[in-house]
Amino acid sequence: MLKTVAVCGARPNFMKIAPVVEAFAQTGRMQTLLVHTGQHYDERMSRLFFKDLGIPEPDINLGVGSASHAVQTAEIMRRFEPVLLDHQPDWVVVVGDVNSTIACGLVTTKLGIKLAHVEAGLRSFDRTMPEEINRLLTDAISDLLFVTEPSGLENLQREGIPDEKVHLVGNVMIDTLKANLEKAGRSTILKDMDLQPGGYNVVTLHRPSNVDHVETFSRIADALEVIQDDLPTIFPMHPRTVNNLSRLGLADRFERMKRLRILEPMGYLDFLKLMSEAAVVLTDSGGMQEETTILGVWCLTVRENTERPITLTSGTNTLVGTDPARIVSAYRRCRSASVPDAPMPDKWDGQAAGRIAEIMCSR
Ligand code: UD1
Asked: Going by CA atoms, what residue is nearest to atom 29 of ligand 1?
């Protein structure tokens, strides 16, 4: 039996780890301990995803919670080390680019245990993003790097990572999407909210660069004002964004947007249904750029760069930055055109986690 520890911590990790632990179990040759760092802990940021995705209850929850980057990262490391010392796995698997990813990766490699990184090689080339630092460092110390798209292979090659460590396996987030699409189709969210397919927009924003400063957040609000005037706009709001609305004095402004509906963060299945029938999705999320590509829904990314360039060339994604005029004109273009019929990215076929399990077993 190959002993593995699989790590998850924050919301975007849960849909990535779900197919991985399932594929490991299916080999019959891998024994997996699931560790949740507790980076995200709210019912709606964490538990709901375990329920919706049928992820087994974590074997261990480190319960770290929120703090500054340094404190959160250090606390995860402090609490993760005894788990590895006690369990002595052959491999640790980390996913994505959050603080839990680098914190657990660093502990693993310092103990001389092998580290596998799922979703390796993505680069925004913007080192002001905390995730970019997490990606660069995690890839530099990993023994196996599982890549989602060709740009990842080029990035890792340029950074001097030996080819034999790197495998293009596809996208585990799309494994989860494909496995749950039918179930999500039974969600009653549209009916409950009195929405028609194609008759509304979806917005999510949570990146510090967009929601932590009043000037930027106000510019995005200028665009949202116009967009919600065109179609009802649903905005399930991340806790960071909720906190900032009042801290930055923007709550009244959002309240005056009568067709913009602010909701609590949603579970996976309801949100997948909501996203799949939307006219346009406006977001700063990484995962949603990929999900809309597969769903064939327009995506406007409120950033100047993306670490997922395949969603621009093979997908439905456009970078719109934070200038309101640019956002609105891109929005109008989407509203007047149908989604291009582009070929899907290679290996985004729902089988990525199976490939990962196979490669790990063959090592
Ligand atoms: C983290 C990830 C980011 C990912 C995002 C998805 C890092 C560096 N960032 O950012 O890449 O896109 O998750 O959500 O790891 N909070 C709650 N309840 C929770 C979790 C957070 O209220 O369950 C609030 C707290 O006020 C906290 C703030 O949200 O201070 C930020 O949480 P944190 O985990 O530090 O970063 P995210 O912005 O969620």
From this structure: 240
Q: Which atom of ligand 1 is nearest to the CA of 42?
A: 23
Q: In the annotation, is 87 catalytic?
A: no
Ligand 1 near 238 CB (within 6 A): yes
247, 273 Cβ separation under 8 angstroms: no
Taking the C-alpha atoms of residue 167 and residue 153, their distance in angstroms, rounded to an integer, is 8
**Cα separation, 14 vs 11, whole angstroms:** 6
- With the most atoms of ligand 1 within 8 angstroms of its CB, the residue from 13, 14, 16, 40 to mutate is 40
Report pLDDT digits (tens) over 117-146: 999 999 999 999 999 999 999 999 999 999
40 CA to middle of ligand 1, Å? 6
Residues, the chain: 363
**Ligand 1 geometric centre to CA of 356 (Å):** 27
Cα(31)–Cα(22) distance, integer angstroms = 11
- The answer for 170, left when phi > 0, alpha when psi is -120 to 50, beta otherwise, is left
Out of 87, 206, 213, 238, the active site residue is: 206
Q: What's the confidence (pLDDT) of residue 341? A: 86
d(CA 221, CA 205): 11
Summarised one tens digit per residue, pLDDT across range 278-302 is: 999 999 999 999 999 999 999 999 9
What's the angle, vertex CA 343, arms to CA 342 and CA 348, rounded to 5? 125
Which pair of structure tokens corresponds to residue 294? 């597969």
Write down the pTM of the prediction.
0.97
Residue from 14, 138, 206 whose mutation best tests the ligand 1 pocket (most atoms within 8 A of CB): 206
Beta carbons of 350 and 175 less than 8 angstroms apart: yes
Beta strand ranges found along the chain (DSSP E): 2-8, 30-36, 60-61, 91-95, 114-120, 144-147, 166-168, 201-204, 233-236, 260-263, 280-283, 298-301, 317-319
**Other C-beta atoms lying within 10 Å of the C-beta of residue 78:** 13
